[in-house]
Amino acid sequence: ALAIGAVGALGLALYLRTRNAAQVYLPDAVLLSDTDCYYHLRRALLCLTRFPWVSVVDPWLSWPDGAKPTWGPGFDVLLALPAWLVGAREGLAASRALTAVPVLLGLVVVAATARLARALEPDPARRDPVTLAAAVLAAAMPQAILLSELGATDHHVVEALAPALLLPWALRPPRDNPRSALAWEARGALLLTALAWLFPGTVMTHGLVAAGMALRALVLPPQRRTPGALAFLAAAILLGALAAPWTGALAQQKFITI
């Protein structure tokens, strides 16, 4: 029953996020949600020409000298990846492939939300209905649909994904097993790094999660306190390494890959 319900919730999410296909997929163009979506589409299309390189300076900003976009390249590389994998490197086919990526991310949000709800429910007898209820809510919530529908090629869907992925990790730290604790720290570091690389604004979510973990460490007795600092430290180092070529290229005004 749980599997059938989960498939149904994902099917509902897919339908609600693609029912605008006729308005997005025009015969000779794609019609996106707003101006930010068009700019992410532009950067992703440029990325396809030299994947996974993303332009540091865009001549279309502050013409004719060009300007440096404020966001890093992660989300635009992710938008370009499926099109690059299937060989749609330019033109209308590439644009249509790029506009579908937010829908896939929206399905991940639904699954992650259901997993989070299941982790939070203490009563085993209620976990299945709670999981399905959370999945249906995430699938049908209007704001969630708006952030991940066809043509919403902005990074806001990553903002929704960040807490849904981070909270299950933060709420279930291992105990009394050094190897498991190290693996848990490593998973957290990779997750924190990936989310911040996709959208730098997720550091706000990181901060809230870190504050909650710090509060838990303060109120719990020493023998029950949990780790987490190593994951954040490792994520900071990884992000610094990822950002180094990008920030170093800002002064040189060139294409760069990370």
Question: SSE layout and pairings?
Answer:
Blueprint: H1 2-18, H2 21-24, E1 25-26, E2 29-30, H3 35-49, E3 54-55, H4 74-85, H5 91-120, H6 127-140, H7 142-148, H8 156-171, H9 178-198, H10 203-219, H11 229-250, E4 255-256
Antiparallel strand pairs: 1-2, 3-4
Overview of the molecule:
The chain is mainly alpha-helical and 258 residues long. It has 11 helices and 4 strands; from the N terminus they run H-H-E-E-H-E-H-H-H-H-H-H-H-H-E. It has helices at 2-18, 21-24, 35-49, 74-85, 91-120, 127-140, 142-148, 156-171, 178-198, 203-219, 229-250, and strands at residues 25-26, 29-30, 54-55, 255-256. The strands form 2 sheets. A two-stranded antiparallel sheet has the order 1-2. A hairpin with a 2-residue loop joins strand 1 and strand 2. The longest helix is centred in the middle third of the chain and has 30 residues, at 91-120. It is globular and about 60 Å long. The mean pLDDT is 86.
